[in-house]
UniProtKB/TrEMBL annotation:
Residues 22-197 form the EngB-type G domain. This is GTP-binding protein. The chain holds residues 287 to 483 of 484 of the full protein. Belongs to the TRAFAC class TrmE-Era-EngA-EngB-Septin-like GTPase superfamily. EngB GTPase family. It comes from the Eukaryota.
């Protein structure tokens, strides 16, 4: 499934710019700097996927990537800038919620959390949005190489408990490091299971 180089199909800033929903889709969400582009690159065996910036002040878009005839990946704009204007937060929420509400081909949202950090208020807001729209999702702890094995297990349990408390659509948490490759094969295999047979 991940054999082909990802091709940017669309960088959509509005509902009417979403491409046709032909293939099963996996979307990636997370706070800015969580390691989302690194993970998408690691999954697709690339060193560099065309990057459309989501830094403050620049235009946010939902980026749709084709990775072959069986699966698409969707890079949701990063969120959680403490210094982002309310207006920007609102436009993030509106575009992402429209995507979650309307996208029939969406199989799962991978919600990335930095393994060193707790779930933040902005992460919990996104979880509420996923719950409200009955979207199946899964927590991915990123940068697993940055914490000790013992700490990682403890943090994983805490994060899973926190989402289990509010959720019925959540799949078991996974841990990855794009740096070392730990967990990447396993995640790739799991996502391949959601692709067209
Ligand atoms: P994005 O903003 O979520 O797309 O985050 P990036 O993928 O650009 O990564 C943000 C920063 O975290 C960069 O400096 C990366 O090199 C670093 N990073 C990403 N993944 C890992 C990882 O698995 N381990 C470590 N140690 N650093 C990582």
């Amino acid at each position: 499934v991940f054999a082909e180089e990802p091709k940017l199909i669309a960088a959509a800033q509005a509902l009417n710019e979403f491409p046709p929903a032909h293939l099963p889709e996996i979307a990636f969400a997370g706070r800015s700097n969580v390691g989302k582009s690194s993970l998408i690159n690691a999954l697709s065996r690339r060193t560099h996927v065309t990057r459309v910036s989501d830094k403050p002040g620049e235009t946010q878009s939902i980026n749709f990537y084709g990775i072959g005839p069986r699966l698409s990946l969707v890079d949701l704009p990063g969120y959680g800038f403490a210094y982002a204007a309310d207006e920007k937060r609102e436009s993030w929420s509106q575009l992402v919620e429209e995507y979650l509400q309307t996208r029939k081909s969406l199989k799962r949202v991978m919600l990335l959390i930095d393994a060193r950090l707790q779930l933040k208020a902005s992460d919990l807001d996104v979880i509420d949005m996923l719950e409200r729209n009955r979207v199946r999702y899964q927590i991915v702890l990123t940068k697993a190489d940055m914490v000790s094995t013992k700490d990682l297990a403890r943090r994983a349990t805490a994060a899973q408990q926190e989402v289990d408390r509010r959720s019925s659509h959540v799949s078991p948490l996974v841990m990855v490091s794009s740096q070392t490759g730990a967990g990447v094969l396993k995640l790739r295999a799991a996502l391949s299971g959601l692709a067209v047979r």
